[in-house]
Design goal:
By secondary structure, this protein is α+β, with helices and mostly antiparallel strands. The protein is 40% helix and 14% strand. The protein contains 11 helices and 8 strands. The strands form 2 sheets. It has a 4-stranded mixed β-sheet. The chain has a 4-stranded antiparallel β-sheet with strand order 3-4-5-8, with helices on one face. The chain is globular. The N and C termini lie far apart (56 Å). The mean pLDDT is 94.
Length: 324
Amino acid sequence: MMYKATGSSVGWADAIYLVPYRYYQRFGDKELLRSCWPMMKKYADYLLKNREKDGHYEKGVHLGEWLEPLEFRDKVYGAKAKHPEECTAYLYLTMSTMAEIASLLGEPCDEYQTAAGEAKEVYARYAELDTDRQAKLVRPLALGLLDGEEKKKAQARLVKAAENFHYRVGTGFLSTPFLLGELTEAGAAETAYNVLMNPEKPGWLYEVEQGATTVWETWEGYAGKGDSGSLNHYSPGAVCQWLFDTCAGIRVEGENHFVIAPIPGGTLTHAEAGYQSLYGEVKSRWEKTESGIQYSITIPSNCTAEIRLADGRTENVTAGKYQF
């Protein structure tokens, strides 16, 4: 019954446009966007139609920042609570993304662009930017709701929030995928690695220390009483994107162009990853040695890449195997 009630919950329902758009970004195929356009437009127009009088969105039942660590949960949370901050943030994401998709397809985009600007202004009423609640800082940063000095202040506050929580994960379903990326974007890659490698609860390695071979739905796992959630639930496993695009540094930039920008760090001595592109496998590996960081990068045939190394060097290359 809960899923019937929360089928339109923000962060979940957004898959209706985010999944096709992600496919376009990865493969450059507009046909999937075109075939999905009617349902994407229907969802976006539903949000527009059901905005509140003050411009924020909250119609229906929403889960919000589902399953934050216990330390950060409101007394009333999930489907029983109101979520104007989360809902309005995703209203902005919907409208800004739909404006981009409409432009790509040659569809009218002015209404979505205007609505995105309005949602961004309204969101400021609900933003909480001086807090140790990591999700409240990650969300506006990740979804593009902050600019200029306000963005810089939120980035610095996020780093402080991670430090104050002793480098443990403080986010739930909606913000965990963005946490390490936003710490890195804030110039705090080592803080991101500290969070990644922390064996304490809540955190990924805590689960490993407890013998987990799958990713838990909740950071606390099975407590022996009540509903502890699933012990095989991917959401917090979305950290794998950061492992690919930042730790190993493989980023897809168009059909056959890549940016390889690994950021070594933490207690890891080496890292490597491969991405099976349409043209062959892209590989990236780094290893800490006595003489410095050694990189090994492979770009497949008919592809190009911009390689950005941690020391600031940049190389534009074609297919081949490279050592730095």
